[in-house]
Specification:
Layout lengths: L2 E3 L6 H6 L2 E3 L2 H7 L2 E4 L13 H5 L5 E5 L8 H9 L3 E6 L21 H7 L4 E3 L8 H19 L11
Parallel strand pairs: 1-2, 3-4, 4-5, 5-6
Length: about 160
Protein backbone atom coordinates (compact mmCIF):
# COMPACT_ATOMS: atom_id res chain seq x y z
CA UNK A 1 0.00 0.00 0.00
CA UNK A 2 1.18 3.49 -0.74
CA UNK A 3 0.39 5.99 1.99
CA UNK A 4 -0.11 9.56 0.88
CA UNK A 5 -0.51 12.35 3.38
CA UNK A 6 -1.29 16.02 3.42
CA UNK A 7 -0.45 18.05 6.50
CA UNK A 8 -0.06 21.76 7.14
CA UNK A 9 2.70 20.83 9.58
CA UNK A 10 4.47 17.81 8.06
CA UNK A 11 6.69 15.57 10.17
CA UNK A 12 9.26 14.48 7.62
CA UNK A 13 11.11 12.19 10.05
CA UNK A 14 7.90 10.29 10.81
CA UNK A 15 7.09 10.13 7.10
CA UNK A 16 10.52 8.74 6.20
CA UNK A 17 10.42 6.14 9.00
CA UNK A 18 6.92 4.98 8.03
CA UNK A 19 7.12 5.20 4.23
CA UNK A 20 4.58 8.03 4.09
CA UNK A 21 4.72 10.36 1.09
CA UNK A 22 3.58 13.95 1.60
CA UNK A 23 1.71 15.32 -1.37
CA UNK A 24 -0.63 18.13 -2.32
CA UNK A 25 -4.27 17.95 -1.32
CA UNK A 26 -5.30 17.77 -4.99
CA UNK A 27 -2.96 14.83 -5.59
CA UNK A 28 -4.24 13.09 -2.48
CA UNK A 29 -7.84 13.51 -3.67
CA UNK A 30 -6.96 12.32 -7.18
CA UNK A 31 -4.86 9.27 -6.22
CA UNK A 32 -6.43 7.83 -3.06
CA UNK A 33 -8.67 4.79 -2.83
CA UNK A 34 -9.25 5.53 0.86
CA UNK A 35 -9.19 8.99 2.42
CA UNK A 36 -9.01 9.00 6.20
CA UNK A 37 -9.30 12.29 8.07
CA UNK A 38 -7.39 12.71 11.33
CA UNK A 39 -7.21 16.45 11.85
CA UNK A 40 -8.66 19.17 14.03
CA UNK A 41 -11.41 21.51 12.89
CA UNK A 42 -9.91 24.86 11.91
CA UNK A 43 -10.76 27.52 9.35
CA UNK A 44 -8.36 25.72 6.95
CA UNK A 45 -9.96 22.29 7.47
CA UNK A 46 -13.66 23.17 7.70
CA UNK A 47 -15.47 21.29 4.92
CA UNK A 48 -12.24 19.80 3.59
CA UNK A 49 -14.54 17.27 1.96
CA UNK A 50 -17.10 19.11 -0.15
CA UNK A 51 -18.66 18.98 -3.63
CA UNK A 52 -15.52 20.30 -5.28
CA UNK A 53 -13.07 18.00 -3.49
CA UNK A 54 -15.31 14.97 -4.05
CA UNK A 55 -15.40 15.74 -7.78
CA UNK A 56 -11.59 15.35 -7.84
CA UNK A 57 -11.64 11.93 -6.16
CA UNK A 58 -11.48 8.47 -7.71
CA UNK A 59 -14.81 6.84 -8.39
CA UNK A 60 -15.74 4.59 -5.47
CA UNK A 61 -13.45 6.27 -2.95
CA UNK A 62 -13.89 5.33 0.70
CA UNK A 63 -13.99 8.27 3.11
CA UNK A 64 -13.29 7.81 6.82
CA UNK A 65 -13.61 10.60 9.36
CA UNK A 66 -12.42 10.23 12.94
CA UNK A 67 -11.55 13.91 13.30
CA UNK A 68 -14.40 16.40 13.55
CA UNK A 69 -17.84 16.39 11.95
CA UNK A 70 -17.45 19.64 10.04
CA UNK A 71 -14.43 18.34 8.13
CA UNK A 72 -17.07 16.89 5.79
CA UNK A 73 -19.97 18.78 4.27
CA UNK A 74 -22.62 16.14 4.88
CA UNK A 75 -24.90 17.08 1.99
CA UNK A 76 -21.95 16.86 -0.41
CA UNK A 77 -21.11 13.42 1.00
CA UNK A 78 -24.71 12.30 0.51
CA UNK A 79 -24.64 13.46 -3.12
CA UNK A 80 -21.34 11.64 -3.63
CA UNK A 81 -22.85 8.47 -2.19
CA UNK A 82 -26.00 8.79 -4.32
CA UNK A 83 -24.05 9.20 -7.57
CA UNK A 84 -21.54 6.47 -6.58
CA UNK A 85 -18.53 8.82 -6.66
CA UNK A 86 -18.12 7.90 -2.99
CA UNK A 87 -18.25 4.13 -2.60
CA UNK A 88 -18.53 4.07 1.17
CA UNK A 89 -18.04 6.13 4.32
CA UNK A 90 -17.05 5.39 7.88
CA UNK A 91 -17.95 8.26 10.18
CA UNK A 92 -17.06 8.44 13.84
CA UNK A 93 -18.25 12.05 13.87
CA UNK A 94 -21.13 13.95 12.30
CA UNK A 95 -21.50 17.61 11.44
CA UNK A 96 -24.41 18.15 13.89
CA UNK A 97 -23.59 15.38 16.33
CA UNK A 98 -24.26 17.23 19.58
CA UNK A 99 -27.99 16.53 19.38
CA UNK A 100 -27.65 12.77 18.90
CA UNK A 101 -24.43 11.13 20.00
CA UNK A 102 -23.99 11.66 23.71
CA UNK A 103 -26.99 9.91 25.24
CA UNK A 104 -29.31 7.07 24.34
CA UNK A 105 -32.06 8.38 22.09
CA UNK A 106 -32.97 5.05 20.51
CA UNK A 107 -36.58 5.49 21.61
CA UNK A 108 -36.98 8.73 19.65
CA UNK A 109 -37.46 9.52 15.98
CA UNK A 110 -34.49 11.21 14.33
CA UNK A 111 -35.74 14.62 13.29
CA UNK A 112 -32.50 15.53 11.51
CA UNK A 113 -33.37 14.68 7.90
CA UNK A 114 -29.73 14.87 6.81
CA UNK A 115 -28.59 12.37 9.44
CA UNK A 116 -31.56 10.12 8.70
CA UNK A 117 -30.66 10.13 5.00
CA UNK A 118 -27.01 9.38 5.78
CA UNK A 119 -28.03 6.45 7.99
CA UNK A 120 -30.21 5.06 5.21
CA UNK A 121 -27.16 4.07 3.11
CA UNK A 122 -26.03 0.47 3.55
CA UNK A 123 -22.47 1.53 2.67
CA UNK A 124 -22.19 4.06 5.51
CA UNK A 125 -21.24 3.26 9.10
CA UNK A 126 -21.73 5.89 11.80
CA UNK A 127 -20.08 4.96 15.09
CA UNK A 128 -21.03 8.01 17.17
CA UNK A 129 -17.68 9.11 18.54
CA UNK A 130 -16.21 5.73 19.42
CA UNK A 131 -12.79 6.04 17.72
CA UNK A 132 -11.22 7.20 20.97
CA UNK A 133 -12.47 4.10 22.78
CA UNK A 134 -9.19 2.18 22.72
CA UNK A 135 -7.35 0.90 25.78
CA UNK A 136 -4.48 3.30 25.02
CA UNK A 137 -6.73 6.34 24.56
CA UNK A 138 -8.68 5.69 27.74
CA UNK A 139 -5.43 5.14 29.64
CA UNK A 140 -4.07 8.45 28.33
CA UNK A 141 -7.28 10.26 29.28
CA UNK A 142 -7.16 8.82 32.81
CA UNK A 143 -3.45 9.63 33.24
CA UNK A 144 -3.91 13.21 32.02
CA UNK A 145 -6.98 13.74 34.20
CA UNK A 146 -5.23 12.47 37.32
CA UNK A 147 -2.15 14.60 36.57
CA UNK A 148 -4.39 17.66 36.16
CA UNK A 149 -5.96 16.97 39.57
CA UNK A 150 -2.54 16.55 41.20
CA UNK A 151 -1.30 19.80 39.64
CA UNK A 152 -4.41 21.67 40.79
CA UNK A 153 -4.15 20.37 44.37
CA UNK A 154 -0.43 21.20 44.49
CA UNK A 155 -0.93 24.70 43.01
CA UNK A 156 1.18 23.85 39.97
CA UNK A 157 0.62 25.32 36.48
CA UNK A 158 -2.29 23.59 34.75
CA UNK A 159 -0.91 22.44 31.41
CA UNK A 160 -4.32 21.49 30.03
CA UNK A 161 -6.37 24.40 31.36
CA UNK A 162 -9.01 25.64 28.95
CA UNK A 163 -9.27 29.41 29.13
CA UNK A 164 -12.17 31.46 27.80
Amino acid sequence: MNILAYDLYPDYNFARENQVVYTSLDELYHSSDIISLHCPLTEQTKYLINDYSISKMKDGVMIINTGRGQLIHTNALIEGLKNKKVGSAGLDVYEEEGEYFYEDKSDRIIDDDVLARLLSFNNVIVTSHQAFFTKEALGNIATTTLQNIRDFINHKPLLNEVKK
